[in-house]
Design brief:
Acyl-CoA Binding Protein, Ubiquitin-like (UB roll), single chain, about 375 residues, alpha+beta, FA, 13 strands
């Protein structure tokens, strides 16, 4: 089996893609002649999904149903219109995190064959411009993700920025600072804003909270997102790798391209405009650059992952980020069934692009009732 797959980095055109909540494959979406004998529904799979507010909801799908069936169930329960910014994530025992592939049967996805599988509903594509999020509820969900990233140490920043972001979280949840209710910083001690929270940080948060008087929860949410998006690690999820000399690095992918870190310090960015093609071969991840983008590097830059699965996982995330942020339209390609002999993965991004989401929401806008925070 040829273990290499690549994709060219250029904008995609083509026919307009159907909405992600249209009838997915595996679901009866039209009239057809009923079978002469009743068919069994098939094995059902109970899947727990952890929402962004940390509540757990149980969903049931046929084991052979596509991932999209489960994802659509989650989005329908949330009444979520801007769904394509989000995804369902699961974690392997070795710690590697994967996105649920919406075009593959749930039962075929590694890690979901467990007796009691759990997935996490998360932000998948961190928009560089929160003002492009049309709905207040979508911005609220983004804020819950930022709150989680901050508390888990993924969104590392200096103490002043952390205190400012935390103060917007408090303003959205508690309202205006009132000295009679909050005589000192201890009202913040029940919150976990950052991993190493101390009294000094809580005092800074309190001083910032005082300045936000009059801000509505929606205004505080937008201020939080505007502050977060300016942080260097906004939306960055680290994937351990090594360079050709064996130096440990972290790779991340975001709206602007592929970013290289040493620990949590950014050392290089390969913007999508500089990249001609990305590919993987076994555990080697390759970035082929346009001639004008070489600079210090050769025409192809290599990184090495622990194994093939980790390498392919990062490649798939790069393919999806490029499709979502750089393309106006993504052409829907029918996924090939696995053959004994194949030329690698047929994986492509299958959702709406950011441009399509903005257009879709504006075309299908309906006034929403105020949601319960």
């Amino acid at each position: 089996m040829n273990d290499i797959e690549s994709i060219s980095m250029k904008g995609s055109g083509g026919s307009k893609m159907p909405h992600s909540h249209s009838t997915p494959a595996g679901v009866d979406g039209g009239s057809r002649t009923p079978p002469t004998t009743p068919r069994k529904a098939g094995k059902m799979l109970a899947v727990r999904v952890q929402m962004l507010d940390d509540t757990i909801t149980m969903f049931q799908v046929q084991a052979k149903a596509l991932g999209r069936v489960l994802f659509d169930q989650v989005c329908k329960q949330l009444h979520l219109l801007e769904a394509d910014y989000f995804g369902l994530e699961y974690q392997e025992p070795n710690g590697t995190k994967y996105w649920l592939d919406l075009e593959k049967p749930v039962c075929r996805q590694v890690g979901l064959s467990l007796i009691d599988p759990i997935l996490r509903f998360c932000v998948k594509f961190y928009t560089p411009d929160p003002a492009q999020l049309e709905e207040e509820f979508t911005r609220y969900l983004f804020c819950l993700q930022i709150k989680r990233d901050l508390a888990q140490g993924l969104l590392q920043c200096n103490d002043n920025t952390a205190a400012l972001m935390a103060s917007y979280i408090v303003q959205a949840e508690c309202g205006d600072y009132v000295i009679e209710d909050y005589p000192d910083h201890t009202y913040l001690s029940t919150y976990k804003f950052v991993p190493h929270q101390d009294q000094e940080l809580e005092r800074r948060i309190m001083e910032n909270h005082k300045k936000h008087a009059g801000q509505s929860p929606a205004e505080a949410d937008l201020n939080l997102l505007e502050t977060a998006r300016r942080c260097e690690l906004y939306g960055m999820k680290m994937h351990p790798a090594k360079d050709h000399e064996g130096v440990p690095l972290n790779l991340a992918v975001a709206h602007m391209g592929i970013v290289v870190f040493q620990n949590f310090t950014k050392i290089n960015t390969f913007s999508w405009a500089k990249i001609r093609k990305i590919s993987f071969k076994r555990k080697r991840f390759l970035i082929k650059l346009h001639p004008e983008g070489y600079g210090y590097y050769k025409d192809t830059v290599e990184f090495f992952f622990e194994g093939r699965n980790e390498c392919k996982n990062f490649w798939k995330k790069c393919v999806e980020n490029h499709g979502f942020f750089r393309c106006s339209v993504v052409k829907r390609v029918v996924r090939q069934k696995t053959r004994v002999l194949s030329r690698g993965s047929s994986f492509r991004y299958s959702g709406k692009t950011q441009k399509q989401i903005v257009e879709f929401v504006r075309d299908n806008y309906v006034k929403r009732q105020t949601f319960q925070r």
